[in-house]
Amino acid sequence: MSKYKILFQITGSIAAYKSAYLISKLVQNDFDVQTIATSSALKFIGQATLEGLTSKPVLTDQFQTGHMMAHINLIKWADIIVLAPASANTINKMANGIADNLITSLFLAYDFDKPYLIAPAMNTNMFRHPATQSSIMKLKSWGLQILPVQSGYLACGDYGSGKMLEPDMIFEHIIASINNVKTDRGKKVLITSGATREKIDEVRFISNISTGKTASTIANHLIKKGASVIFLHSQGSILPEFNCELIEFVSYAELKKKLFNLIESEDFDFVIHCAAVSDYFVDKIEYENSFMNSGENLKIPSKLGSLKLHLAPTEKLADKIKNLSRNKKVRLVSFKYPGSENPEDSLSEANELLVKSDSDFVVLNHIKDRDNNIQNNFLIIDKKQKSILASTAEELAKQITKIIFEGL
Known about the structure:
Layout lengths: L4 E6 L5 H13 L3 E6 L9 H8 L15 H8 L2 E7 L1 H8 L6 H7 L7 E5 L3 H5 L1 H12 L3 E2 L3 E4 L5 E5 L3 H14 L7 E6 L4 E2 L5 E2 L6 H13 L2 E7 L10 E5 L2 H14 L4 E4 L6 E8 L2 E4 L14 E6 L4 H7 L6 E6 L6 H15 L3 E4 L5 E2 L2 E2 L2 E5 L4 E4 L2 H14 L2
Parallel strand pairs: 1-2, 1-3, 3-4, 4-5, 8-11, 8-13, 11-12, 13-17, 17-18
Antiparallel strand pairs: 6-7, 9-10, 14-15, 14-16, 18-21, 19-20, 21-22
Helix pairs in contact: 1-2, 1-8, 3-5, 4-7, 9-13
């Protein structure tokens, strides 16, 4: 790995001891690490420990003799800034422009042109407090990457959310952020994910069993590799762990509009159409020989008894992606969930999709390979009838990443 410069900041939290492991791992992976610690942080982790790990003095006071302007230049020096652990106090100060120590002062000198990762660590009530949540949302809106917290037993004895993300996961986020700034390696990828919901009335809908897990797993691998990912996802679907642009849809019609707008306006290298799109939408609702339109009622009264739903077919979105794409060289990965478990029938459906949609690859999977809402056993097929078997979503993600970055 190249020698990247990391400005690693530590605030007052008992989770500070975990930073030592993370800093050690960064140094072992050839990162150049400079640490900054608040005075309260040094009550949890020793200065000698940090200096021993980085071979650099720990910066603790913005008024140290001989380092007055050098501290401000640290922001220019760093390729990436990490704040782990980030206390509620520091997060709220940053969001409100308060600069009363070195870390908060340096934040006011931050130019937003490089990754800034924040790993919160605090008591559950402090994390959930409206002030903290408001500050987190504000920092996110400014472009900072707020890493997720974990739930469990906290140092104070409470159980809940607020635990700092484990160091190995923070390391993965750092790697992903570094890869995202390697523009020479970047690929622009659009991924659709999750299940559409077709409205019956304002409280009921028809949907399917898709969770978005497969798509989010693929997105995680691509982002870590350095791809620029737009994740077009259904409401409530599983989202990627790493930073990407998130766009939500609910119904087939909303997905169609947003998908077509994106491919017509942006140059994607790949479109991975993984969303579980409804084959039908509710056209009319029949009751005692009279009809009402879908969504006409806030809630259809249960006292009506039997109803008949008249369903109309939707268009196959995959069939239009290549023709509508601004980039006429875009490559398309489509997914097929066949109605038959017969291998010959399934392959026939996959080949039909290859032809009709002009897909470069079709990923075939079956309902019989779904266990506890986790899909397994994917078969990737290309136009030359070459195929690759992936037993899990992780393996599928690795194979698709190879296809995108190595042309396999």
